[in-house]
From TrEMBL:
The lineage of its organism: Archaea, Methanobacteriati, Methanobacteriota, Stenosarchaea group, Halobacteria. It comes from Halostagnicola larsenii XH-48. This is Uncharacterized protein. Keywords: Membrane, Transmembrane, Transmembrane helix. It comes from the Archaea. The chain crosses the membrane at residues 21-39.
């Protein structure tokens, strides 16, 4: 006959050891290969249907290169395959609990995960999905370089994110994109001699798209540009992808010309420092011609264009380097673009086309 008191006694004696084991497992995540913050995520089971969304988690051990990176993520190859994505491409992530919060990221690493829907990024990268945060808006100003995405409501949280392979919205007009805080791309093809590009136009790096359009119109050349806007001053935070990371596969209009062999490609870009720097992998004589032509178009009181002191903005790696046999990268502060965007664009076009004349914009008096 079973003794109920003895049975209960055995159960009571077993419970402490089970509780101790669970406590030890949670308290020593290294034994399980888990971060404490990812315990809940690791216990989830994901079906194929769940791969429409991702679970945004903190960085894992061995991802030190991501800590100060606001634009890169890692993801499981099976999650990427479900969306026909791979490392090097861009992806749009959005928060299902707030449709106004979305941003573009570069897939920098394919990393096996359990469960397979985990996407990892830095704290500051997560804040790009919280642009409504007052703390973030206070450090971001369209007329200066955006400050770092610091503390925000999701910087130390795990949360769901919807996945989309659509980077520029193909169906919007410019006015609609501006109103909706969206990104569009535009391409005007006109031969393969010269191409002028602005990967960060609109409110991302203001006036750069105007410069590319103006120079291409003057020089009768091809022009590709994006135009992005965001909530308040958040366009840079939402849409910026470093030029060396930008994948033509993620920008359909760009992909159509990515394999064309342009003689010269020119990128109108922004920079946080003052001035105008003319760089690229073009011959020194061409870079000097562009510099001198820009300075001829500027008033004498304006800060003059210069060549870089070192090779910091030259060599392969930038998008513009891949598009042209010779490349020119114009690095310009916002203050310079705001005041002299047209003069700089005109001077650049004149250096590449004999049909464009430069007229000095005036004196300082």
């Amino acid at each position: 006959m079973t003794n109920d008191s003895d049975t209960n006694g055995r159960i009571d004696r077993l419970n402490p050891s089970r509780r101790s084991l669970l406590t030890a497992m949670v308290g020593t995540p290294a034994v399980l290969g888990l971060a404490v913050g990812s315990y809940e995520a690791a216990s989830r089971v994901v079906s194929d249907e769940d791969l429409e969304t991702a679970l945004v988690c903190s960085l894992a051990d061995g991802q030190a290169d991501f800590v100060d990176n606001r634009t890169s993520i890692s993801a499981d190859p099976r999650l990427l395959s479900a969306h026909d994505l791979s490392a090097g491409q861009q992806v749009r992530l959005s928060r299902p609990d707030d449709s106004s919060e979305f941003a573009v990221y570069t897939i920098a690493e394919e990393r096996p995960e359990a469960p397979t829907d985990i996407v990892r990024m830095s704290d500051s990268a997560r804040c790009r999905l919280d642009l409504g945060s007052t703390e973030l808006q206070a450090t971001t100003d369209e007329t200066s370089c955006p400050g770092p995405a610091g503390d925000c409501s999701v910087s130390d949280e795990e949360f769901d994110a919807e996945i989309s392979t659509t980077i520029p919205n193909p169906s919007l007009s410019e006015s609609e994109a501006r109103e909706q805080g969206e990104l569009i791309e535009r391409l005007d093809e006109n031969g393969t001699d010269h191409i002028f590009i602005a990967p960060h136009g609109g409110a991302v790096q203001p006036k750069t798209d105007d410069q590319a359009e103006h120079a291409a119109d003057l020089a009768d050349a091809t022009c590709w540009r994006t135009k992005g806007w965001g909530p308040d001053a958040g366009a840079f935070q939402r849409w910026y992808v470093p030029s060396m990371a930008l994948s033509p596969e993620s920008y359909p209009e760009l992909e159509t010309i990515a394999d064309d062999d342009f003689d010269v490609a020119v990128d109108f870009g922004g920079v946080c420092d003052n001035g105008i720097v003319v760089a690229g992998n073009a011959t020194l004589s061409l870079l000097e011609d562009v510099r001198d032509s820009i300075n001829d178009a500027l008033p004498s009181c304006a800060e003059q264009a210069t060549l870089p002191d070192d090779d910091g903005l030259t060599g392969d790696g930038l998008l513009v380097d891949d598009l042209g046999e010779e490349s020119v990268f114009l690095s310009q502060s916002y203050a310079t673009r705001r005041a002299y965007w047209k003069e700089i664009a005109t001077g650049t076009a004149a250096a590449l086309s004999a049909d464009v004349e430069v007229t000095e914009s005036g004196s300082c008096q």
